[in-house]
DNA sequence: CGGCATCCTTAGGGATACTG
DNA sequence: CAGTATCCCTAAGGATGCCG
């Protein structure tokens, strides 16, 4: 019984191919701090304002300022001014497409935490608006099969010629 | 056009319910360092030995030692002695079930990095061993519908009575 | 409201050298 | 091979106070 993946093709020798281009490492360069991912979580929950991010994530303003700037620089959030009629100008941080596309990462973390770090399976739940059923993240192949980790082969990407 | 989720039920007031039990935050308490997730990546690639972890992740031995100890303490890896016939005793780190269950987190990070941080869609590929088709992580409801982020409602978990 | 400046502490991580 | 010890640097983050 092995839980590791099966490596195929030019991957076996492990000849240092990864350090340069591994996209997990690249993603972590942007997201490896706790505050960055929790700010993104808040953005999905609809938070848009500086003070709310700091308070709801539970971080100090200087940290919130630093992290929000980085996330804007990286293109995960967009900073916009807006003005409601009769009000003064405010700022808001909105998810960009790149930021919104991060949702599966947060769901994956939540699903793992729900299963392994909470005795009641986690405090919140995602449901499909149309049918009301719970939503989960699943590994699936292009042919539509649900796939277990043990059934996966890993190899270099084949460029479709 | 809004990319945030729709909050339902007792969730709207945002009354600080989250800080205590949010399982994303709990997961990040274990996994928020770059080296921890890269070590887990290596474990999925089949790495089992101390020196290989340090070298392939690209971290120093002291850091590898600290991180491996934490991951063993948290139950994501198991440290075992083994001896091949005629050889001396060696140590290895193996994925536990808890560790193996982290796979979707790494896939989610990889998928996001492939799309947004690499001009060629990422260096490696996951394929379903049975049918050879590429494997991706998808949001799906219990009724089998593929679900987009915009179609998800978030609410407190309802305990099935 | 939406920050920035300053100061401080801790954690992550590298380099080098050494041990069983 | 599988680490530990030591030293040092930088990044993450908290606390307080100030500013437009």
Keywords:
two-stranded parallel sheet; DNA-binding; 161 residues; alpha+beta; homodimer; two-stranded antiparallel sheet; Arc Repressor Mutant, subunit A
Structure commentary:
Chain A has a single domain, classed as Arc Repressor Mutant, subunit A, CATH 1.10.10. In chain A, strand 2 and strand 3 form a beta hairpin. In chain A, the strands form two sheets. A two-stranded parallel sheet of chain A has the order 1-6. A two-stranded antiparallel ribbon of chain A has the order 2-3. Chain A has 161 residues and is an alpha+beta fold. In chain A, helix 3 crosses helix 4 (50-57) and helix 4 (50-57) packs across helix 5 (61-73). Chain A has helices at 18-21, 23-31, 34-44, 50-57, 61-73, 97-100, 103-116, and strands at 6-7, 77-83, 89-95, 124-128, 135-141, 152-156. Helix content of chain A is 39%, strand content 20%. Chain A is built from seven helices and six strands, in the order E-H-H-H-H-H-E-E-H-H-E-E-E. Chains A and B meet through strand 1, helix 1, helix 2, helix 3 and helix 6 of A and strand 1, helix 1, helix 2, helix 3 and helix 6 of B. The first copy, chain A, binds a DNA duplex (20 and 20 nucleotides) through residues 33-35, 49-51, 59-67, 88, 90-91.
């Amino acid at each position: 019984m092995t839980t590791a993946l099966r490596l195929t093709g030019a991957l076996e020798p492990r000849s240092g191919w990864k350090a340069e281009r591994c996209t997990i490492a690249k993603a972590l360069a942007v997201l490896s701090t706790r505050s960055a991912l929790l700010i993104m979580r808040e953005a999905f929950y609809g938070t848009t304002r500086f003070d709310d991010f700091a308070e709801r994530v539970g971080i100090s303003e200087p940290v919130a300022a630093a992290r929000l700037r980085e996330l804007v620089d990286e293109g995960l959030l967009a900073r916009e001014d807006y003005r409601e009629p009769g009000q003064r100008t405010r700022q808001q941080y909105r998810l960009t497409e790149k930021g919104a596309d991060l949702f599966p990462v947060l769901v994956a973390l939540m699903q793992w935490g729900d299963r392994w770090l909470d005795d009641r399976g986690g405090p919140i739940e995602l449901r499909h608006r149309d049918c009301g059923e719970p939503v989960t993240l699943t590994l699936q192949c292009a042919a539509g099969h649900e796939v277990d980790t043990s059934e996966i082969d890993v190899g270099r990407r084949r460029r479709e010629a």
